[in-house]
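One example given next:
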Amino acid sequence: MEWDYFIVGQGLAGSILSYNLIRNDLKVLVFDDPALPKSSTVAAGIYNPFTGRKMVMTWMAEQLFPYLLKFYKDMEAELGIRLLYNIPMYRPFLSLEEHNEWSIRLYEDSYSQFIERILSPQEALIQVVNPMGGMMLKMSGYVDIGALIRGVTDFLEQRKAFCSERFSYHKLQILKDHVQYNGHSARKIIFCEGPSMSGNNFFSWLPLNLVKGEILELELQEPLTYIVNRGVFVLPITKSYCRVGSTFDNQDLSWEVTGRAKTQLLHKLDKLIRIPYRVIGHSAGVRPASLDRRPFIGLHPEHEPLGVFNGLGTKGVSLSPYFAQEFFEFLEQGKPLIKHVAISRYFSLYYNKF
């Protein structure tokens, strides 16, 4: 066979999966249209062990976070570029009860590995609105997704494994044990199309939940050395530049920025930090999530040469390295996928279509 895998789409998911398959000595050909918008290029790329308003531990954090740190460091070494930025994250408490609850959790092994320290109200940070104190987290930071995608594109082009073109579904020939496309053949094709999966008839039956998010870029008048996260995140990139986000909108799925989202973000920001700032940029993206907030990974119920790796949502930076390896082991070694991510959990939706 000419190729082991075709990969369609080279956002974060397609980049990580194709890189990981090649690292495992497989022949991969990636198809990507640079003209199509990518949520990955807008996303902040934050990884964070506690998520949401209630600061719940991120799903599978104990497995995902040690894995992602090693994965991105190894990737940096091979590609020769900086990707991983370990930055502490500060999460203000909203009440004394919350402060007391987390002070107890600090002594539980499952939580303590992610918590640097608890700050009392007397230790509250000057730059942040945090009268009840807060907690400083470790194993947090961000991945430069734009640099990662550019680095993987170069990595693929050096191996003549990249086709800069829009994939045409009608040209795909599906045979019993392989696929053919434009004169090329591969054992399998994996679709990593992000929001565009909704237009892919092979996998449009999966319950993709598209969510629009908007992010502001700010110029700060004093340096911030940690991420602040409560209601919105404030991510410092340089001493004077940061990104603030994100909104959540599942009605307006355009890629256009809105004044409503900007107002919403600034309203929350002014309740979170005390640093003077100036807005210098505004961007929007549509991210691919799932109804149960778990990825879509697996092979088509009827056409085994077709696969999907999608639905990573807001946690793509933390989910994609670990599950790219899990998918490899499923495809090449027969190791079952865990039920939470396997698309077999939705096979009934496919069969009910007919």
